[in-house]
Amino acid sequence: MRIRTFDEYQLAYQKSIEDPEEFWAEVAQEFQWRKPWTKTLQWNFNEPNIKWFIGGKLNITENCLDRHLATKGDQPAIIWEPNDPNEAGATLTYRMLHDQVCRFANVLKRNGVVKGDRVCIYMPMVPELAIAVLACARIGAVHSVVFGGFSAQSIADRINDAQCKVVVTADGAYRGNKEIPLKSTVDDALIGCPGVQKVIVLTRTRTPVSMLKGRDIWWEQELKQVTADCPAEEMDAEDMLFILYTSGSTGKPKGVVHTCGGYMVYAAYTFQNVFQYEENQVHFCTADIGWITGHSYIVYGPLACGATSVIFEGTPTYPDNGRFWDITDKLKVNILYTAPTAIRSLMSFGLDKVNNHDLSSLQVLGSVGEPINEEAWHWYDDNIGKNRCPIVDTWWQTETGGILISPLAGITKTKPTYATLPLPGIQPILVDEAGKEIEGNGVSGNLCMKFPWPGILRTTYGDHKRCRQTYFATYPGLYFTGDGCLRDEDGYYRITGRVDDVLNVSGHRIGTAEVENAINMHTGVVESAVVGYPHDIKGQGIYAYVITDQMPADHDADLMKRDILATVTRVIGPIAKPDKIQFVTGLPKTRSGKIMRRILRKIAEGDTNSLGDTSTLLDPAVVDDIKSGAL
Ligand code: WTA
């Protein structure tokens, strides 16, 4: 499965197009299957109905853990770096990780979790988070990890949508100089979740927490009751492995479903080839396991390849802005995979903290989550990679399971801001608004995929129709990514950003409708419209236009804004807080009542001279009012 030269890439790509089934069957054969599959692929993009490795039986944890014990039992699987650099970290070898996963899997079983049950995980970035994830996979339970930055309300919505039976959490979390009360947030969430039977609580911060008799139990106590013997559950390749909620253009986040066989093959294949992972390298992905990047490139991809994966609990700027470089130096990191927003933020501090660390262990740099601007790309290349580490700008999505378009490190010639070329098995196509293919090079359009790859989502949990509507109905016969894209003269792809109502704020996906719903819940708010605008560090900032029943007097306006922020934090979480709130008396609507977001975007961008045609508006005067009050 390993590609080592550009010629090999071209050959592999060719083969993957001519005979996809044979291509992926060869890749999949490198894994450990309990029973081989009988048919490699069956698909249509209309229902959609996508199945890979049909009839194959496996357990992903046997591939991520057991398989390595004989040869790599004593090699580090996970290196944990705590929030506070003065606290002792931890190294878990493959043997230790296997042992702990089996033990925790037995804890889950003891508490009534069986194959197919959903388990919500809301935890800090500690090894136990990966252990909980893998323990679910071990017994065939479906994990739904919720990022620690989401509110009680968001947790409750996700728990109820997935009908989770058990929640795994911790007393609290450390992030920078903050202590975050996870368990109390879960307690608030569970007021609205009657289906949850057990809450397993890890001790991390020793914050006082309420522990309800019969429902809440301590991780540490439970571990005393179990052995380390837990045979892996035999799973069908198409059994559900996990659900991960992500934002779309409608108000309610969707539970993206990935299955055992295809996801494993794809996460491992892309990890190996994109990063050109070599034995014994230390891989540091700075994402949170609460996002897809953490699922695929902290947990499953690296472990399936027997790599050493770093789990970092803290933030890039604590205790100071040199923390990534400190970790790189200390752990001799070889592959660093981070987001443009982190790079831009660290850039702004200058080079002092970069230059007093030894970064010579670095061999490959990666970028993910949002378009990387040219300045950040060069800063990363010059100052972190010292112009000797290839940068892989990896484009993909929660729905794709793994990277789809990216250079292969050191193999594909890179070009700043370009994700470059599709990986083997990936067939991108650009279409215009009407769905017509835009052929040739030097063109741009909406990015779609013509053919499935093993890591593609199978459904959205509990609502297959929504999956079809969102991804497969816009352009019949194609998977629509929601991204705009440019293909240059050399056939290189550059992702230009979302073409739907989805924002990308600091690499986090947030739906404008979700934020609007939250703002509209605030007392006195009549209506709101949310758009993105370019933000130097975050990539995009959130700009909210809000109509209230009474225009707040100036001295109240500031307080009302802060109140609205508090409501958004309560409903979604701090990551969705608008950067700017403008109170307005009306919104630019067409005669049919549709908000013309194009105009609002322009004003938010500060580009008020070219608002285009406003004659179709119900009340064109609204625009002047908004312009005059723009922030
Ligand atoms: C954006 C994150 C440009 C894109 C893995 C996509 C990118 C959305 C890149 C998915 C990149 C991700 N260049 N844009 N290298 N990577 N995106 O689901 O808009 O959190 O649709 O998955 O992030 O975000 P998600």
UniProtKB/TrEMBL annotation:
Its EC number is 6.2.1.1. CDD domains: ACS (cd05966). Gene3D superfamilies: 3.30.300.30, N-terminal domain of ligase-like. The keyword Transit peptide does not apply. InterPro entries: Ac_CoA_lig, ACAS_N, AMP-bd_C, AMP-bd_C_sf, AMP-binding_CS, AMP-dep_synth/lig_dom, ANL_N_sf. Belongs to the ATP-dependent AMP-binding enzyme family. This is Acetate--CoA ligase.
